[in-house]
Write a structure and sequence with these properties.
This protein is mostly helical. The chain has three helices and no strands. It has one domain.
């Protein structure tokens, strides 16, 4: 989840992260956005 963490640090919104995160990483994105 380092990629998601980095994106969050940079202030990238959840919809943008979702575009790059796919497969079994997607649930991590959903949890991050809540």
């Amino acid at each position: 989840m380092s990629q998601v963490g980095l994106a969050k640090e940079l202030g990238v919104d959840c919809s943008t992260i979702a575009k790059y995160e796919t497969g079994d990483r997607l649930p991590d994105v959903v949890m991050l956005c809540k």
